[in-house]
Amino acid sequence: MKVVVQKFGGTCVESEANQLITAERIMEARDRNLHPVVVVSAMGREGQPYSTVELVSAARSIHPDIEPRELDLIMSCGEIISTAAMAHLLKTKGYDTIALTGGQAGLMTDEFFGHARIIRIEPRQLLAALQEGLMVFVAGFQGNTNDHQITTLGAGGSDYTAVALTHVINDTPQLPFGEKLEIEPLQIFKDVDGIMTANPKSLEEGSAPRALPQLTYDECVVMSRLGAEVIQHQAAEMARKYRIPLAVHNFLVADGGGTQVSAETKCADESRPTAIVDQPGLLVFDIGSENPRLLLQIAERLDRERLTFFQVAAKRKTRFAVRPLKYRRVEAIVRQVLLSRGLEAEISAGDFALVSVVGEALRGRLGQWEEKAERVLADSQTEVHGGSREDISLSLLVPGDRRTRAVTELHKALVL
């Protein structure tokens, strides 16, 4: 039995018309004698009744404070609704189907509500459904704790679900009654043509990115962490760890090319970076110390809280850039760590953005690309408030109102 895990984003199921197109992509896999395991996100985005944003808004309209456990219960409903709806749609087209929650599919997590991590997978019910020849639909973005509490896996968590299921099926040589089991590369369907050289929404009018035909695992992981929204960061890390091949396709296009990510992928072009990635709307905490032990302590504490942060070096101080959604929580954590040392953090309420140059072409040549990037930003009258470097990425902190200009100029000068 050849199985393919297919993951469909919220746009793919937000309307009746899109659901029918999504059904076509699933049936095409079945026509190729593949057995689809379909992971579905909540329907649509903000403004649509069953989207995660609207479900959370409905809860907080009663009172803004809600316990994380109850909030996860509410947020999990969006994926359950879309999963049941798609299973029903395929049943009306003559297929035997079953809809499963993340927990029923065997995804067991820790108890960190709102941003849980998968600790093991118990796919007994999933494998039994495949054994029976059923087309399996799994609610993304969710799992169960050991004591049967529902948890969610963070923004973009349906990608995490899909990678985890691909891994466990790949790790299962045969079904319960002995039939050999094989797994195809993971298919991730979005409303874009693949992973792009920049976010189209971050470019000035008249500029357009290219779809990337391939990415290395390292590029995929770094881009997802620095702001690219096509694949969730935890999903990208898991794919890299277990060498899970995947492809990102446009669900509107049958047999579309998309972006391939696999262990065989090499650097597409060693002469230029792969992409420009941006993270808008950041707030900045300035720490008036370069003590490495203190900075490590703050970073470890933020990491334990599973908060996304960016440590940025500046003159005689260190900056931690964070998303405003987590502003109060991070402020309390930073102040608590510094209090014992008699220090305070200078908190900037200004709007900042992190703009990053990413690609295998940077490996071993960061200094060269940093000089080029800073020259491009200087020519565009964009002030740089600090930066950070890793093996294949260079990130620069810029004023929020200069983000679009910075992305556009860097993309034009370095990537195209």
* Helix/strand/pairing category: alpha/beta
DSSP summary: helix tally: 11
Order of helices and strands: EHEHHEEEHEEEHEEEHHEEEHEEHEHEEH
Residue share in helix: 25-40%
Judging by the overall fold, what is the CATH architecture of the largest domain?
A: 3-Layer(aba) Sandwich
CATH topology of the largest domain: Carbamate kinase
Explain what this protein looks like in three dimensions:
The chain is an alpha/beta fold and 416 residues long. It has two domains: 2-191, Acetylglutamate kinase-like (Carbamate kinase), CATH 3.40.1160.10; 275-415, VC0802-like (2-Layer Sandwich), CATH 3.30.2130. Helices cover 35% and strands 25% of the residues. It is built from eleven helices and 19 strands. It has helices at 16-31, 52-60, 68-92, 124-131, 157-170, 217-226, 233-242, 292-304, 327-339, 366-379, 403-415; strands at 2-8, 35-40, 97-100, 107-109, 118-121, 135-139, 142-144, 150-152, 182-183, 186-190, 214-215, 246-250, 259-261, 275-287, 309-314, 317-322, 345-358, 387-390, 393-399. The strands form four sheets. Strands 1, 2, 3, 6, 9, 10, 11, 12 and 13 form a nine-stranded mixed β-sheet that branches. The two termini are 43 Å apart.
Write a brief caption for the model:
The protein has about 425 residues and is of the alpha/beta class. It is built from 11 helices and 19 strands.
List keywords for this structure.
single chain; 416 residues; alpha/beta; Carbamate kinase; VC0802-like; 2 domains; nine-stranded mixed sheet; six-stranded antiparallel sheet; 11 helices; 19 strands
Topology:
Layout lengths: L1 E7 L7 H16 L3 E6 L11 H9 L7 H25 L4 E4 L6 E3 L8 E4 L2 H8 L3 E5 L2 E3 L5 E3 L4 H14 L11 E2 L2 E5 L23 E2 L1 H10 L6 H10 L3 E5 L8 E3 L13 E13 L4 H13 L4 E6 L2 E6 L4 H13 L5 E14 L7 H14 L7 E4 L2 E7 L3 H13 L1
Parallel strand pairs: 1-2, 1-9, 1-10, 2-6, 3-6, 10-12, 11-13
Antiparallel strand pairs: 4-5, 7-8, 12-13, 14-16, 14-17, 15-16, 17-19, 18-19
Helix pairs in contact: 2-3, 5-7, 6-7, 8-9, 10-11
